[in-house]
Structure formats: structure tokens, C-alpha cells
Structures
1.
Amino acid sequence: MPFRLRSSAPINYKLFFLKRKISVKNLFSAHNLFIYTNKKVMVENCKYCGKDIKDLRPTQKGQHVANCVMNPNFKFTAEKRSKSRLNTQRLKNPLIKLKLNCLNCNKEFEVEVIESYYKRGRYIKCCCKKCAHKYSSNFLDKNKKKVKRCKDCGKEIQVNILSSDNIRCDNCRKNPRGCDSADESLKFNKRRCQEFKNNKYVCKHCGEEECKRPEVCKLFRQKHNVYDVYFGFDINKKGTNEFYNEFDRIVNMLKEDYFDKELSLTEIANKYKMNYQTVHMVFKKIGIIARTISEAGYLAAKNGKGNSDNAVSYPYKSGYHINWKGKEVHYRSNYEKEYYSILDEKKVNYEIENLRIVYYDTQKKKFRIAIPDIYIKDMNEIIEIKSKWTLDEINMNDKIKAYKTLGYNVKVMIGEGNKNFFKNAKEIIY
């Protein structure tokens, strides 16, 4: 029966396609093509989800309707499709049931494996994981050899018994893509990092035939480079004479942050919005030696980055005291708290653990950071409050030398007893 449009006139497909100079092999394809070209006959919306599908081909429309989530038969068709796929897979690669003997305990067990996997040796050879571990660690001679064929040339080679089947001989591994000699293979590896300019091969990065600093060019062989993404490396300078100068600019920038500004690795990572481990990797490749833990702690104490309020290294009473200005200050012993109240009565402007002074410790033979207990700015005076039992005289003398060289007035309060500390305290002024 001839296909009809919404009008009652029948359609002659031959005349329809001859006018448009289109060759159609059979009537069925002509019918589908006619439906696709004439949009009046097309279904405009999906009958399940209501999506607009008027611009799709007939096959695409059928796929949409069959796979539509709102379709009530969607689950049934999906299960049917998965079963048919499994059947076709099993026709190509059928399952085989085998009875094998365990390599470790010689116990017979049954295994089900795909036929192609069995031919390649990819199947379970032991009855359990315990036997597999014992066989691989104890009963297998690791020096034993097996004969395999090269993946590229097919040559028989002796390899270790634990090596995989995907292996190449020495000639194919050293000479990639069929290079005749080792020199040709080296040239081939170089060509991957070069480009052809002005009738010669030059490096993609520095723009020279032979790299003056090949260790720098190797850093830029990755597809997504760290130096371009995070450190603002000028891409336009790649392949020019200014390539090394741009790289040195970034290295000097990082050295300035790390050594001159004394930033930590975490601070540098936050500055450039990158990961801490990436910064550590970049420093290692550039040749910047990271600080030790003691050096990092020294700089943290020097720059006041460490939170000394929560770090109580001795078992004395500590807490917070509100001074005569209403400001909260930290104390590390009852002696300090008692002295704060004396200064509050006199309404003295004092600061707590505000200074960071470098001094040389003669006992440990290294530079350390001293944090004075109290500093009175109006009198330019440093006050150290110590107990008779905790005082280290040699260490205190080292600190006082550093204080005096910087021009500070120094007062040391030494006392004993838990109550009325400052009545019996010994006051030493330097």
C-alpha cells in the first residue's frame, strides 16, 4: 500500500527522488529518507518524557524511545540486551571447566576459565591464596629461566620465570621502531624532543641543535608543565635564546621566597596555589636543598610563626591574665602572673614574648632564638623572670650578651618559693 501524507494524495517515490537527483537502492530506504526530509510526517515529541526530538533521524528516535527512562519496558529491554551480550561474548570466548592439581600441595581442584585466557596462561594455578603465596615465595626457584618469544620480532629468548609474556628482546628494546644501530636509536629518541626549523633539527625548548643545559630542557618535556601553570613561565620564550633566562628568573624568584623572605614550603604552596608535595618535587629538581626540622623551627621562632601559647613544655601553671588596659596576655608560671599584677598597679606599658632575638648558644654550639618574658618599650628594658631551680646560668649569660649588643637594658628576677615570690627575689640589673 503506498505511503500517504496527511493529504489524501499518494506519493510516487521515483518521481520524488528523480527531481532531487538522488539514487536510492530500494523502496524501504527511499521511504525512510522521504520521512526524514519531510518534517510534516515526523513525530515531534517523545510519548514518554515529552522531549523535543523533531531534529533526530528515525533510527535515533527509535533508540531514544527504547532507552527512555520513563518507558515502562526500559528495565525489561535492558536485561534482555545484557543477556544477549553475555551470550555473544561466550560464543566468541567460551568458558571451560578444568580439573587441575595445585602447584604447592598437589590437591585437585576445579576451575572455570575463558578459553582464550587458558591458552595465554592466565588462570588460577593454586587451590587457595595461602598455597599461591607459599609457592611463589618458597618453592619457586627465582633463578629459573623460561623460553618466550619477543613481542616485536618473534625471536626466542630466555627470561626469568616470574617475567610477563609481554616482553621484548635486547635489540628491539635498545633499537626502537626497527633502528639498525644504537646510534640511530639515540637519534630517534632525540627527534621526539626536536622540531625541524630552517632545514635542521633543533630543540623545542631552547631552540638549539645541542642543548647547552640539557637538564633544564628535560624538566619541560611533560605535557602539563608546572612552571607554565603555577609560576608564570612565558610560553612565547620557548624555542628562543631567552628560554634559559626565563627559567633562571623563576629559580631566583623561588630562592628569594625561600632564603631571603624565609617562607616555608607550605607558605610557598599557598602563595602559588599548588600542592605541598609539588613544591617539594620542584625544589628537588631545581637543586634547592630543603631545611631540616631544627632549621625550620629556628626560623619559625625567629619570625614569630609558631603558636607558643599552646606549646607548654614544662609542668607549671599557665593561662591568661587581663592587664590594666583590658588586654589578654599569656603567662607560663605563677611568678609571671604575680609580676604582671605589679606592673598593672603601676600602669606600665609592657609586652609579653614580643621580641625574637638571635643568640649563640655556647653549650649546643649553634645559633638559637631567645624570646624574652617581658619588654617595656618606654624604658627599652627586657625583664627575664626565672626560678632558682630552673635557671641555666650559662644559657642566660649567652642571652644577656645578645641583649646588650643590641642596646637593651636587662633585668633578671631570680627567686624561690611558691608564695610571695618577689619579696625574696634577687634582682640583677645589667
Note: The longest strand covers residues 95-101.
2.
Amino acid sequence: MHRLPFWLVVTGTTLLLGTFAAAIFALAPWESSAARPRSDLEYELDLSTQPAEMVATYHYMEDHPAIGKQIPCYCGCGEALGHRYLLDCFVIRPGVYSDHASGCMVCGNEATDVRRLTDEGQDARAIRNWIDTEYAKYGPPTDTPR
């Protein structure tokens, strides 16, 4: 019986596990937000120091990335911070929160409206249309594809 050298078994196993881990990460729903760098103008927010209502909004946005990626933000953060959509105002990557939305009335109100409209049974297109109409008065939106 022929046995492979130990170093070859370890190297092959490591490569296989690394490839598997990379594939799982690439398929995760956060794949496009996981790599978002934190802007020099925003900091990580410790949710344990925030009011319960704000924490609930942050968790809602984190738990619903699909809708958060379809809604533009109208506070100017697209140009100022490089945000791509409303989700970026709340979450830098899973478990790491941006302080931006904690001090921005537009972001907070948009997220509250998104949650309310979702709870009312509106689909993403209807919510996007409502947000676009209601918030366009605040300024240019993030460059969020339809």
C-alpha cells in the first residue's frame, strides 16, 4: 500500500478547506457589503450604548440586507461617505455598525418607513417608489440600482 507524505496531505486538506470557506463566503447574502471599507468620516457604533428603538432599527436593517440594498439614501452620504444604499448607513459588515445613521434623521426615518411599508405588505419596488417620492426633497440619492 502506498501512502502519501504527511506534508502533502496537510497541504491538500488546507487548500480544500480554504477553497470551501471562500465559496461559502462568496455566496453569503452579505458578500457585496462585507468588503465595504469604513469611511474616515464614520466610526463603529457600540449598540449597547444606544436606545432600544435605535438598536431595533439597526438590527432590522442588518437582518434585511436584501431590501436595504434596494433603497437609496437621500442624506448625501453617497457623495460624502461613499455609501451605495440605505444599508450602508447602518452596517459596515455583519456585527459592525456605522455611527452614521445614529445621528442622521434622514437615514433613521427612511429605515423606519421601510420597515413600516414592509410590515404593511409592500414589495421592494413599491417601497423604493415611495421612498424616492417622499425623500427626494432632502438631496441627491445614493447611486442605488433599481
Note: The first strand starts at residue 44 and ends at 45.
3.
Amino acid sequence: MRLARIFILLWFLLAFTLSLTGWFERFSSATLFGFGAIAAASAFTVLHWLSERFRGFLQACSLNLLTLGQVFRLYGVMALVKSYQHVLPALFAIPTGVMDVIFAISSFYVAARLVPSRGQPRAGFVVWHILGIVGLGVSVILAILTSSSWWGIVDGGVTSQAMARFPMSLVPTFVGPLVLVLHLLALVAALQSAPLTRVA
């Protein structure tokens, strides 16, 4: 667990430094979102498949903490602000911001009510995390579709390219992939830990 925290810290520092220096601006927002999502999901899949130590780590994970990690999605408020400022297209920013805020806030309820002290997650726990992944997928698709006027659905000529600039570039390079991994960790850990129970 300590190693995981160190890795996340180093990942954040790298993403923050490259974002602050403008290094990500050389890439399109579509590239950043696509690569971030694929890299995170692929790394998780490979580790789970090949590493027995990683699978052991999953069994030791706290479902509460993995769920509360979705608080990072409050970063989505910035998308709503940028949409209001006409920096990001509403087609991408509003659904993304609203979904992120909903999942960030509801994570407190899910962690408190759907993960009893005995560690057996209730059925709604899995559904909530699956919906969280679906929401992330919708955001990635909308970011890609609004990344260029070539797609023909940008809002008044405003594209999602602002997501390649600091501080928004932290979303496709750190926040988005991190919350995706947390969702995957929680799902696999829950399915491995104990039989699901219904909400009382």
C-alpha cells in the first residue's frame, strides 16, 4: 500500500511538472484522453494477469478508500467553469462536469452505506463503480469528438484542446486515469473479497 502511494505521488509530480511547463500542449486533447484511458486500463489488466503480488495487493485494498478516491472527480467543477467562460465546448464540459460532481459527492454515501464493516460489499457497490467507468468513457468520447472542428460537432468553434493546457491537462494525464484505475481496483477487489449482499 505504501508503494502504491509513492507511485501515485511520483505520477502526480511528473504530470504536474509536464503540465505546468506546457509539454502536453504539443498533443491534441484527443491523443491525451485516448492514451490516458488506454494506458491506465492496459496497465491494470496486464498487472492483474501477470502479477500474483498485484492480485494479493487487491485483496488487501480497502473498498472504502478506493471508493472515496473518486472525490478527485470534483476536479470536474473546473470543466463547468471553463464551459461558462467559453473555453471548453458545452457538449463536452457540461456532461463531464455534472457526472464528475455526482460521482464525487455520492462516493461518500457509497463508501459509508454499501461497504459494511464486515467487508462484504452490497450489490449497488458494483453497479455504482460500473456506472462510474461508463461515465468516464462518455467523457473521453466527447472530448475526442470535440477535439477538432473536423468532427463537425464543436460548439461555436470552441474545441476541447484547452484540456491540453495547464491546469486542465492534469485531467487526461492524471485525474482521469487515476479514477479509472480506482474504479477497476474497487470492482475486482469487491468481486474477489466476498459474496455480494443486497442493500438492507
Note: Residues 2-193 form one domain.
4.
Amino acid sequence: MQPEVLNRLKQVSARKTLVLTHYGRKTGKPYKVTIWFVLHGDKVYLGTANVNRNWVRNVQKTPQVQFSIAGEKFDGTARFISDRVEHERVMAMVRRKYWVFWPILTLGRTLAALHLMHDHSGSFEVTVS
């Protein structure tokens, strides 16, 4: 990533959400979703509580994405994180950034650990171009 792009990304990394543009699996039509994110190093990480959401399946099929944070626009390539250890590392970063939601996030993890709820969480690593 170019230093200028990384600098722009760091400037907006404290924001709570980004708007992700992804493309329909069948139509290729662009869609937007507002989601949480974490910047770590030169990568952007996205988490989801439900991998069955359309945006997740769309990004898995077409990993080229665009996103905007506070008016700054970026292009990137997303990689679905299938390794559970790596996924848990990403989700730990998400929990640190969004600590105010800790009780809700912890409840979901506890219910999944007790097999009272299925864990459908997932995450992406986005390499910014």
C-alpha cells in the first residue's frame, strides 16, 4: 500500500463504521452496507455475526470491493478468513474497538460455547490497493 493511502486510512481509523460497496453474486449490481471495521497495520478487517448475509456471500464471490470512511474512498481486495484462530484474532480486535458492546458480544460467544446458539460469525481481511 502506498504511504499516502495508509496515512489517509489511519486518519479515519477511529471512526465506528465504513460503507462497503460489494457486487451481487448473480447480477453484478453494486450494493452498499454499513459495517464495523478495524485497521491493523496496513489491513482493514471486517467482522460479521452471520456469514449467511448477502453481503458476505457477495464478497466471497467477488472480492474486489470499495469502501468509504468519513468521505475518504478506498479500493481493496477482500479475503474471507477461514482459519478459526485467525478469525478469533480478528474478532478480538473488533471486541477491543467496540468495547461498549462487550456485554452483547460476550453473551453471543457464551451461548455459542454452551451450544445454545450456533456461531455463524465470520471475518474478512481487506488489502487496500
Note: The chain has a mean pLDDT of 89.
